Amino acid sequence: MRLDVQDLRVSLSGRPILHGISLALNPGEVVGLLGPNGAGKSTLMRALAGQVAATGTMRLDDTDIAALSPAARARLIAYLPQTRIIGWRLSVRDLVGLGRLPWRGYGLRPSAEDEEIIASALALMDVAYLADRPATELSGGEQARVLAARAVAQATPLLLADEPASGLDPAHQIMMMRALRRLAAEGRSVLVSLHDLTLAARWCDRVVMLKQGLLAAEGLPEAVMTPQRLAEVYGITAHFTRDEGGLILAPTGLTDGEAGS
Amino acid sequence: MKPLVLNTLLALLALALFLASLGVGPAELGLSESLAGLFAGGSEAAEIIMREIRLPRALLGLAIGFTLGISGAVLQGFLRNPLAEPGIVGVSAMAAFCAVAVFYSGLAGSSLYALPAGALVGALAAVLILMALAARSGSTLTLILAGVALSSLSGALTSLVLNLSPNPFASYEIIFWLLGSLKDRSMEHVVLALPLMAAGWLLIALSGRAIDALSLGEEAAQSLGIHMARTRLLIIAGVALCVGAATAVAGTIGFVGLVVPHLIRPLTNRMPSVLLLPAGLGGAGLLLAADIAARLVLPAGELNVGVLTALIGAPFFLWLVVRSRREAF
């Protein structure tokens, strides 16, 4: 399904956070959401997930997202929050199984189809070997992948992932991005916020860059991530190289002036 | 353990303790005499003792224990906090205070129902305050802080009445509400409290899906289709109904709601909704056992069952915490 957002505005406690964002996601696309801390990335995701009040239009094909009931929205949009919370010593399999709640009648055991979807989500996030371990006893990186598997198991056309790669080792960062690409290949749309610019450049079809609640730039990674724009939005200088996999970006320092102050 | 096996075992345990509770009392009744008194009408004395004294007591032990266990389990799941217990929402403290106030004002003499009705009004007032807050602020933390404030306020007011009470008999009655007891309850109490408790259990059962999703925090739960405002109302109303009704007939009984979910949780897959029924059954078993012990330890004076649950519950809880240094939850 195609996500179409027009002129999205959000205020929190009377303070405007997003000042009219417009963007679109096509089925099969992985779109990276970039921007410094406080630019409004998480707020944008929470607005799309129906967790903060917003004005403007948000549509999935012809469906008005704001008008959906929570239960109906949960079958269309999965949201992986940035804060990783695991309340009880649930087994990894049971935790990932929570992703099936929107699809299951209350009190019913997971169906064979549920079990299949749970197993494939575990495999996709490379946590199948942990399935019977208590999720609370895993490392931070393992927990991040388990929670991502929960959102995957929700089997929605749109996945919003808020910094799913933060705190992961390099191998698992790449695995996380590859998993998101696989979901896109199945026809889902993925909006993923990232701080690692190289990951964004190499694994996203397009990137959207926010600065102080405004859209700073949007388009192909190479078109958006220019030295001028990184200076403007992040206040950094960076070393740019490229190989056959795409752009490689290493931040090298702060630009003078506003940066770091 | 499979939920079905666990629930069956706990139900059998509760049933056994229920029957044992029927068999315990100052009157020496044999087994056959008791059964005859209960069902077929043996001697008149046996019939009165069984039907009007022991049966209501055992029924209330069962229902109130179930209430405390299931309320503790749902609140721990809802708040993702292993320290939550039914008292935390302030409902039982308010109920106890209003009962005490009714007693102090002298209204209690007017009817058998005056005291429990007063307690129910107190519970209802606490619920309305909490619901108004829940509807306004939309934050679970605010709700808890309000509950704690309500608890402290009612506790202070109850102490005030205790200080002002004119005679030792009045103080004794007030202490009954603070410590909780199943002593001298009648079938009228059962008829008054049981429907309200059952309604509360139903509301709690309806929140099962929400507390499962809340294992992942409020944001993730919302994204799984959970309507947070509705869930808050459901759980607050459910807990208030059953705990309010329980307090109205038996005073505040501590520790059952806190300890039982911890005892039962390791026997389940720790999914909050799966814990609800076994925690209720376990609570029923524990309260019945404590009530039997209260009658056996001091046959003449009879301990308050709330004292006993705290005496056993607190050290046990401490042991549980020390034993499991890693996360026990």
How would you explain this protein's 3D organization?
The complex is a heterodimer of chains A (261) and B (329). Chain A is of the alpha/beta class. Chain A has 9 helices and 12 strands. Chain A has helices at 41-48, 70-74, 92-97, 112-124, 140-153, 170-185, 197-203, 221-224, 227-233, and strands at residues 3-12, 15-25, 30-34, 55-60, 63-64, 77-80, 158-162, 189-193, 206-211, 214-219, 236-243, 246-254. In chain A, strands 6-7-8-3-9-10 form a 6-stranded mixed sheet, sandwiched between helices. In chain A, strands 2-1-4-5 form a 4-stranded antiparallel sheet, with helices on one face. In chain A, helix 4 (112-124) crosses helix 5. The model of chain A has no long low-confidence stretch (mean pLDDT 93). By secondary structure, chain B is mainly α. Chain B has a single domain (3-323), classed as ABC transporter involved in vitamin B12 uptake, BtuC. In chain B, helix 1 packs parallel to helix 13 (272-297), helix 4 runs parallel beside helix 6 (140-164) and helix 8 packs antiparallel against helix 11 (228-250). The chains are: A alpha/beta (261), B mainly alpha (329). The interface between A and B is medium-sized, with 38 and 28 residues. Chain B: It comes from Chelativorans petroleitrophicus.
Most residues in contact, chain pair and counts: A-B, 38 and 28 residues
Class inferred from helices and paired strands of chain A: alpha/beta
| CATH topology category name of chain B | ABC transporter involved in vitamin B12 uptake, BtuC
Q: Quick one: how many beta strands of chain B?
A: 0
The oligomerization state is heterodimer
Distance between the termini of chain A: 42 Å
Number of helices of chain B: 14
Mean pLDDT of chain B: 85
Low-confidence stretches of chain A: none
Computed structural class of chain B: mainly alpha
Query: SSE order of chain B in H/E notation?
Result: HHHHHHHHHHHHHH
Average predicted local confidence, pLDDT of chain A: 93
Compute the number of strand runs of chain A: 12
CATH superfamily of chain B: ABC transporter involved in vitamin B12 uptake, BtuC
Give the tally of structural domains of chain B.
1
Radius of gyration of chain A: 19 Å
- Low-pLDDT runs of chain B: none
